[in-house]
Predict the structure.
Amino acid sequence: MLGACGGKSDNSDGNFDAGSGGGGGNSGSGGNNDEGSGGSGATTGTGEGGVPEFEGPVESIDDVDGTDLDSDPESAYFFWRWGVGNWFLDAPEPNRIRTDAVSAEIEPPRGESTWAYRVQGTGHSRGVDLWAQLKHPEGAALDLGSTYAGIVFWAKLEGASDRLLVGVNPGVYYFDAPDAVPTVELRVSAEWQQFVVPFDVWKGPEDAVASFDFIVGEGGGDFDFWLDDLGFFCGAACPAPE
């Protein structure tokens, strides 16, 4: 994957507005394992009653607040076990977006979390893709399935649709080659939810993952999407720090 270098955004309000897109043809959700709400084997919880917050061993990829190593909550890059990563936002022609993603302050905070990635927009018939490149800038794919059991993250979504596609990307731009990116469909509410998604849900290449992709806004309706605290969960214990 290619992408601009990470760094501070000059977006003064802390939000990325994907704006109003034009028609983009049919939905680019190829490769989707349409498992319905939560996906097969995926679980959700609010941490505030209902399904309890996941309490298994978790290793942070990006907490967005800037407490993981030296990362800055106002930048798109993050530091984690395997080096430097970066968040990007992508949308297809005819209204191409390809830029660093932007984080915003959570008001009121979600517990101790005060920053998250936020994307707003309308009129993007194929949606937009918020994606975390794990090895920046080279975009190398990593063998994650032998070390981790899946991913965990927090999200909320308001707008015309509650549909979120989450993909394990082997190293392509999603909208250029959607069939190459296994995805699972989740239903996301306007309240913060925690999602726990095992790798076997995707039935895909967990031994070659270059990015995790989060696609929203398909169909062209308005959307306001937030994502926070992306991490891995481990089957037993997470590997010891090196």
In short: The chain has no helices and 16 strands. The chain has a mean pLDDT of 79. Residues 30-233 form a domain with the Jelly Rolls fold (CATH 2.60.120).
